[in-house]
Amino acid sequence: MFRFQEKRFCYSVQPAYNRSKMTRSRVSMKDVAAAAGVSLTTVSDALNDRGRLPEATRRRVRDVAEQLGFQPHRTARSLAKGRSGILMLSVSLPESTPGSAVDIEFFVQLMSAASGAALHRGWALVLAPATGSERSVPVDFDGAIVVDPRPHDALLRLADAEGKPVVTVGRDLENPDRLHVDNDHSAAVREALDLMAKAGAERPALLTSEADSSYVQDCIDGYNVWCTTRAMTPQVVTAAGGLTQGAGYEAARDFLTGPKRPDAVFTTLDSLALGVHLAAQSLGLDMPHDLQVATLSDSEAARQARPPVTAVDLNPVATGKEAVQLLIKAIEDAADTESFLVPTRMHVRGSTGTASPEAVSD
Amino acid sequence: MFRFQEKRFCYSVQPAYNRSKMTRSRVSMKDVAAAAGVSLTTVSDALNDRGRLPEATRRRVRDVAEQLGFQPHRTARSLAKGRSGILMLSVSLPESTPGSAVDIEFFVQLMSAASGAALHRGWALVLAPATGSERSVPVDFDGAIVVDPRPHDALLRLADAEGKPVVTVGRDLENPDRLHVDNDHSAAVREALDLMAKAGAERPALLTSEADSSYVQDCIDGYNVWCTTRAMTPQVVTAAGGLTQGAGYEAARDFLTGPKRPDAVFTTLDSLALGVHLAAQSLGLDMPHDLQVATLSDSEAARQARPPVTAVDLNPVATGKEAVQLLIKAIEDAADTESFLVPTRMHVRGSTGTASPEAVSD
DNA sequence: CTGTTAGCGCTTTCAT
DNA sequence: ATGAAAGCGCTAACAG
Q: In this predicted model, what pLDDT tens digit does every residue of A124-180 receive, in sequence order?
């Protein structure tokens, strides 16, 4: 239950910008040219540092432009150059996941870092409409970043159709050679399993979401390789219900009360781990003694849980920056761009047993 | 401590889009006109539903366009119409706050909702560079949303300078009549104080961040009015160190060990409340018995804390949507736009004592 | 070293 | 009911 405020919800005011409505019409390059007594070309060259003008003219023109308060008209420039300066970014979650990508810390960090990196290099980044959304992209764009691509991602297909460069975060399973940024999830899983094994785990399980992303498959591969090496019987559980704590909880209630209960579990997302955490508590299992928990993707929630959850930091900030950098490179000259693997970090915390001496909790 | 992966960090692949490099050059309206045997004007009119063509021609032209796979060139349209279709959004945090706005759930929700609402209506939303950032905005925009405006917000000044409409979230204290979206924070504070008083609070304090935002001032006003009405001595504490849990913790350690320790505290942001929460626990104070805590702005962290924190949901999603709607209206016709107050919701949880019967925890 | 000119792809008067 | 033509503000050949 809740109560709404009883007060007025609306009232009226005058927009502030109305007051200075005598907006002097934009200063154009033509105006600058006239004022400086040169041609349009010269102004363009001076403003864009095209080195064919003597420093003197360049300076003079720039000064005039500054004094007139000239601001370049980006749209006109875009039209003339055939480049909009806009990058699109889409994150498509599995159908089954309620809520949106902003509920997942990894995506928020990545998105924010990507936007900042783009701006820093003079590009603008626009979030793409959720897949399946009514209309398509409302602006011209020069390239796209597709996070965790799924078979029929709208932005991916649109970019491909228009021949525009794409960088994916995580591999495009339908086209694995496509330019991408990724982590070595398989290695991360094996590292975490080693850690838990050292602390006594004998039956580690893997809890994943639906396996339609490359990172989930990599985790499964890494887990299977590890189990094979150790001659252990793998137990892979797929949580139904998307990337949520609830999905993790339901799955965990299930396998934690079944026969051959695992004594450790690695999850492919922090929200799943949090669900396992909750299930373990509700079953009266002690972490890490009765059950060790480790997960892919670090988050504030993983840090705040009691005990805090051991997690692999995927470095979404570096990932976002790198994706932007790669995409810009691909746009500017398709040559010499190569996919990139972002290093991960393991944060050992209370949800797993004590690890080897060099890996201490942060 | 942590360990980096030892593996290869990079390897090279061929960008996928290179393979289809024989990109058929965009289909333009001219092509459509030729194919349909009509003029450019007619195509334009048909495609934009300008009602001067008989339904027959309109259909025919549209069919041809569709068959040719025509996609409008947004940039060209923008140049001709003098409107870019782009909205800017900036969030400026207090100088003292480390990290970025994406660490604050309110902003993330607002931003995501705003972006979605813009897209839904055919506009694109671009995040503005952090204030004080090197270069200015890399695209032409038609209007701006400025969240929690501060005295010298770069985007605010830029928009004003170019005579572009602005909607602020929270009032612009230097120009209170400016179009905005806001909550009735003063009423929310009083409601929370009532709640805590009913549960026995006799010395409620107010913990705020630096008071340079309208919402902080509103909280202070509401608090003072409430105290005056009840003939209570107000105790307002300003946390140093920005909008962080650490800042809340430090401030709370201080006033919780001083003379006349408050038995309840209202904070102006969830991270501050979480800091108070931590301080109370470290001092062995029981919540809600020894200390009641309530805060502005609900969050996952407030819900997950033990005990969970009573919080005012500011409805950032509605706020973001409304801001976009208002801004578009202001861009399209400056008339009849009015500021808007978004209703809030109180979520009563374990950090405060039992409230009146109709306000039950969710 | 600098200017002239023709677009970029669309919208929009103004004719017919 | 439809078309011709002049831009929108900038870039980029191509001259000189």
A: 999 998 876 556 789 999 999 999 998 888 899 999 999 999 999 999 999 999 999
Whether the beta carbon of A57 falls within 7 A of nucleic chain C: the reply is: yes
Residues A15 and A259: their CA atoms lie apart, in Å, by 67
Among A44-48, B13-17, B51-55, B77-81, which stretch is predicted with the lowest mean pLDDT?
Answer: B13-17
pLDDT at residue number A336: 79
CATH of A185-313+345-360, one of 3.40.50.1100, 3.40.1280.10, 3.90.1150.200, 3.40.50.2300: 3.40.50.2300
Q: Are B343 and A5 in contact (CB under 8 A)?
A: yes
Read off the pLDDT band of A353 (50, 70, 90): confident
Amino acid B181 reads: V
Give B86-183+317-331's CATH code, choosing from 3.40.50.2300, 3.40.1390.30, 3.40.50.1010, 3.40.30.10. Answer: 3.40.50.2300
Degrees, nearest 5: CA angle A39-A40-A45: 100
Could you give the CA distance from residue A347 to residue A295 in angstroms, rounded to a whole number? 10
CA of A42 to C1' of C4 (A): 12
Question: Is A343 an 8 Å CB contact of chain B?
Answer: yes
Q: In the block, which residue shows the tokens 């890494």?
A: A222
Pick among B2, B324, B332 to test the A interface (most A CBs inside 10 A) = B2
Cβ contacts of A159 on chain B, cutoff 8 Å: 17
| B260 has pLDDT over 80 | yes
A119–chain B Cβ distance below 8 A for any pair: yes
| Average pLDDT for B53-72 | 92
State the SS3 of B33-86: HHHHCCCHHHHHHHHCCCCCCCHHHHHHHHHHHHHHCCCCCHHHHHHHHCCCCE
CB contact under 8 A, B129 and A108: no
Closest CA to A206 of A237, A231, A239: A237
Residue B15 is predicted with a pLDDT of: 38
A332 touches strand D (CB under 7 A): no
- B4 pLDDT band, cuts 50/70/90, is very low
pLDDT in tens, A293-313: 999 999 999 999 999 999 999
Whether the domain at A19-73 and the domain at A185-313+345-360 fall into the same CATH topology: no
Q: Is the CB of A40 under 7 A from strand C?
A: yes
Domain edges within chain A: 19-73, 86-183+317-331, 185-313+345-360
- For domain B19-73, the CATH architecture is Orthogonal Bundle (1.10)
Q: What is the spatial distance, in angstroms and rounded to an integer, between the CA atom of A12 and the C1' atom of C6?
A: 51
Q: Cα(A184)–Cα(A175) distance, rounded to whole angstroms? A: 18
Average pLDDT of the segment spanning A62-67: 91
pLDDT range class, residue B24, cuts 50, 70, 90: low
